[in-house]
Amino acid sequence: MIKPLLDGLKTTLNHFFRKPITLQYPEEKWSPPERFRGQPVLIRNDEGEPRCVACGLCEKICPCGCITVHPHTGADGRRQLKRYTIDLLRCCFCGLCVESCPMAAIKMSSRYELANDRKEACVLHEQDLMEKIGPVSDVSG
User: Fold this and answer.
1) How far apart are CA 23 and CA 117, in angstroms?
2) Given the DSSP bridges, would you call strands 79-87 and 106-108 parallel, antiparallel or unpaired?
3) What is the rounded CA–CA span in Å between residue 35 and residue 108?
4) Fewer beta carbons within 10 angstroms: which end of the chain, N or C?
5) What are the mean pLDDT values of the chain's consecutive 10-residue runs (141 residues total)?
6) pTM for this predicted structure
């Protein structure tokens, strides 16, 4: 009768003294896996401009309707990006926008700390999408 009790106590103590499972969040950060889908970001070309040519495929394929693309015609007659917006409150982080982009202009980053106290701050424009992460080398995906 005592042996099963001691066996159970031994198992409990073995688990108790192992490495802790919980992270001490603000001090310790979780490192997401390689294929993690965090905040979408725009990729820059060599000139520092977004690679996006405003084709609108990401906007059309988005099941949540959180992407808005506003194109304009440049001085050279080519279609260019005027304004790009992603509403993170509506985004389901599915990655369909990444798959549909023919220019590889959008990627899913590893950024997961997206909480904010204002709704307006969750609507990101092209400047926010590029400045928060930086060039291609800082983007996972």
Assistant:
1) 24
2) unpaired
3) 9
4) N
5) 91 84 86 94 90 95 97 89 96 97 94 93 93 47 44
6) 0.75
For residue 132, what are the CA distances in angstroms to 3, 39, 95, 111?
59, 10, 19, 10
- Burial pattern 94-111, b for ≥16 Cβ within 10 A else e, equals eebbbebbeeebbbbbbb
pLDDT for position 1: 80
Instruction: Give residue 103's pLDDT.
Output: 93
d(CA 88, CA 22): 27
The first and second tokens of residue 23, run together, are 């992270």
pLDDT of res. 14: 87
Q: Tell me if 126 sits within 8 A of 50, measured CB to CB.
A: yes
Rounded Cα distance, 109 and 112, in Å: 8
- Beta strands 67-73 and 106-108 are unpaired
**Can you give the residue ranges of every domain in the chain?**
32-138
Q: What angle do CA 122, 68, 71 make, to 5 degrees?
A: 135
Taking the domain 32-138, which CATH number applies?
A: 3.30.70.3270
